[in-house]
Amino acid sequence: MPSKITRVNPDQLHTPPGYHHITVVEASRTAFLAGQCPIDPAGALVGEGDINAQIDQVVANAMIALGAVGAEPSDVVRTVIYVVSDDRSVLGAAWERLTQSPLAPAFTTASTLLGVAQLGFQGQLIEVDLTAALPG
Q1: In Å, how far are 9, 23, 73 from 56, measured between CA atoms?
Q2: How far apart are CA 124 and CA 68, in angstroms?
C-alpha cells in the first residue's frame, strides 16, 4: 500500500518553480538516504570539472538507492541539493537538469537548493540528499 503524500502550496506564499512549500506524509516507514555523490561503484569521482556528468551519476546512484528500499522518485518527500557554486545560473542549470532526469518526480516535493563552498570529495560539484516515504 503506498504512503499517502499530500503536497501543498498555500495561497499566501509565492508560487514555487516546480516544487511545493509543504509535503505531508502519512507513512509507516521513512527512508533517509545519505547524500548521493557523483561516485562510481569503484569509489572514483565521475566527471571531474563537469557538473552535468556529476549530476547524471548522482541521479543514477539515487535511483539505485531508492530502488534498494522499494521506493521510486515519486515517494521522495524532501530533497536538499548542494552545488559548489555561488553563481545563480549554475544553480539554476543544475536544478533544470535534475528536474529533467529520471529522478525528476523527487523534486516536485519540498526541496531546497543551496550553493556551497565545497563538498566532501575532492572535485565534487554536487550532492543530493533525499528522504522518502516507503510504500507498504
Answers
A1: 29, 26, 15
A2: 24
**Which pTM does this prediction carry?**
0.86
What is the domain-level CATH number for residue 47? 3.30.1330.40
pLDDT, greater one: 115 or 28: 115
Counting every residue written for the chain, the total comes to 136
Of the pLDDT bands very low, low, confident and very high (cuts 50, 70, 90), residue 126 is very high
> What's the grid cell of residue 18?
516546480
Write out the DSSP string of 72-89: -GGGEEEEEEEEE-S-HH
The residues, any chain, with a CB within 8 Å of residue 94's CB and separated by 6 or more, are: 51, 55, 81, 83, 113, 126
Domain residue limits at 37: 4-133
Number of domains present in the structure of the chain: 1
In contact, 45 and 121? CB cutoff 8 Å: yes
Looking at per-residue pLDDT, the higher value among 1 and 69 belongs to 69
Q: Find residue 110's DSSP bridge partners.
A: 78
On the question of pLDDT at 1 being above 60, the answer is no
